[in-house]
UniProtKB/TrEMBL annotation, chain A:
<dbReference type="InterPro" id="IPR009057">
    <property type="entry name" value="Homeodomain-like_sf"/>
</dbReference>
<dbReference type="InterPro" id="IPR018060">
    <property type="entry name" value="HTH_AraC"/>
</dbReference>
<feature type="domain" description="HTH araC/xylS-type">
    <location>
        <begin position="13"/>
        <end position="111"/>
    </location>
</feature>
<dbReference type="Pfam" id="PF12833">
    <property type="entry name" value="HTH_18"/>
</dbReference>
<dbReference type="InterPro" id="IPR018062">
    <property type="entry name" value="HTH_AraC-typ_CS"/>
</dbReference>
<keyword id="KW-0805">Transcription regulation</keyword>
<keyword id="KW-0804">Transcription</keyword>
<dbReference type="InterPro" id="IPR050204">
    <property type="entry name" value="AraC_XylS_family_regulators"/>
</dbReference>
<dbReference type="InterPro" id="IPR020449">
    <property type="entry name" value="Tscrpt_reg_AraC-type_HTH"/>
</dbReference>
<dbReference type="GO" id="GO:0043565">
    <property type="term" value="F:sequence-specific DNA binding"/>
</dbReference>
<dbReference type="GO" id="GO:0003700">
    <property type="term" value="F:DNA-binding transcription factor activity"/>
</dbReference>
<keyword id="KW-0238">DNA-binding</keyword>
<protein>
    <submittedName>
        <fullName>Helix-turn-helix transcriptional regulator</fullName>
    </submittedName>
</protein>
Amino acid sequence: MSRAVEESNRAMLRARDAMDRAYAEPLDIPALARIAHVSEAHFIRTFRATFGETPHRYLQRRRVERAMWLLVETERDVTDICFAVGFSSLGTFSRTFRQIVGESPTGFRRRATPTNVPSCFTKAWTRPISFG
Amino acid sequence: MGMTMNAISRSQIYVLDQDEALDFYVNKLGMEVNTDQDLGFMRWLTVNLPGDPEREILLEKPGPPALDPATAEQVRELLTKGALGGYLFMTTDDARKTHEDLVAKGVEITDEPTERPYGIDFGIRDPFGNKIRIGQMFPRA
């Protein structure tokens, strides 16, 4: 009984890890469901039950977090960063960024400061939340 | 003043299966078995990095009587969703080469090698959900 939950959790974690690692690639639900070895509908439902948000939302916020990081840590321009983190249009990127962060990428860049902890902690702790 | 502790000699992480853990930590990551002893009530299994037997990692299986069955189940569920917090940080002389070796062995990468102010590091996941970070650290200023 519990074995099934563990296997399912681990498979969902594998798909989430893929988003953390390969956010820059054109990841979509079919590709992620394949990593988890389940159907697309099952994947979306189970991921949400496991982690409290949909895979789409997780990925979107991972991409925005990586964009925030690049805005602070590099001098690359906004368009370049938009494509580097996996968005395919500047319009979608700017709209999504503003929606999630509450300000434009340029505005965010102006007031943010770099950190110096291992990247995995930055990724885990500065991804904008989508629950609660 | 007055504190005389001088080393972190053993750390513990939970694993779901000790044979599988042994295969991963020894055959894939290249660690050594330090102690593998059946104590009757538990299998005391520790590993260390080659040349560093003073720092052991205990690979413990959660279960009764140390944990009641329902609690053990919660631990296993949190572990497999990556939320238990078992976390190992290791250092290497060459992060990119170590990454390449581990990829060839089929180890799950969570974070590709990145150059940061403190060094070059990357992340991997053990078969159960524990996170491991491997870094080639720059000398501290």
